[in-house]
Amino acid sequence: MKHILYILFVLVTLNARAQQIFITKGKIEFEKQLNMHKEVDESWSGDDDNLWKQNMKKMLPKIQTTYFDLYFNENKTLYKVGKDAPQGFQKVPDWMQDRTTDNIIYNDLQQQQTVSQKNIFESIFLIQDSLVKIDWRITSDTRTIAGIECRKAVGKIMDSVYVIAFYTDIIQSSGGPESFTGLPGMILGIAIPRINTTWFATKVELIDVKEADIAAPKKGKKSNYSDLLQQLKKSTKDWGRQSERNVWKMMI
Q1: How many CA atoms lie within 13 A of 32 on its CB side?
Q2: Distance (Å, rounded) from C-alpha 116 to C-alpha 104?
Q3: Where do the H-state alpha helices sit in the chain?
């Protein structure tokens, strides 16, 4: 009798493991990292700037870290600033602080609509538009992020900026950090080498997210992506080699 019970226990256990677990609601913490030393090297060029660049890098941490939270259900996501970086973890001058911590990005995946509240040049804009379309190419490579195995995909934004993403179909939402969407599952990792920035999930929490927790922002001067892009290009046209890079960052 004991042998029969043991066999039944093993069969039930194996069956449970074989069944895929799907997540439809929750909260994901993302750690955003910007390599500030590379930013300094790539933003200014010329032998005359070498001493200045070396002094700047001595003043700055190599990596600037910020945290964001993504709340999600099957059809909607809300991305906004999360916890502070540990005290004393980094010392970044005010003028180089990550201004995206004021941003809030709401995506309605079912209606293919986005509402983004963005801090740009000390002004708040409310971007209302369709979801950003990215032509993703899914690969066979995998990577484990926050304990979850993810599949790698490669896409392109702003015509020439390549994006490396890692997503999981365990989470049944095609969302992700910032404005990145469109893969067959939740994006848990993003890397954009051209702007020396990564976003990787540090933990996934299974919490009961209410509709009120995923409300679109309402504050800011109304605009859309096309108008914002033209305004940014006009405002940064005299910034030299920094112009294009800053436009990419503000449009994400």
Answers
A1: 23
A2: 6
A3: 2-18, 36-43, 50-59, 225-235, 242-251
CATH number, residue 232: 2.50.20
Number of domains in the chain: 1
**Residues in Cβ contact with 157 at an 8 Å cutoff, skipping those fewer than 6 apart:** 132, 134, 163, 248, 251, 252
For residue 11, tell me if it sits in a domain: no
Q: Return phi, psi of residue 227, to 5°.
A: -65, -40
* 6 domain-assigned: no
CA nearest neighbour of 132 among 193, 80, 187: 187
Report the Cα–Cα distance between both ends of the chain, in Å, rounded. 63
- Tell me the whole-structure pTM to 2 decimals: 0.87
Tokens (6 digits) for 244: 């294009």
Query: What is the CB neighbour count within 10 angstroms for residue 214?
Result: 19
Give the full edge-to-edge strand order of the sheet including 26-35: 137-145, 148-157, 161-168, 186-192, 197-205, 26-35, 63-72, 76-81, 104-108, 113-120, 123-130, 221-223
Most confident range (mean pLDDT) of 75-79, 82-86, 94-98 is 75-79
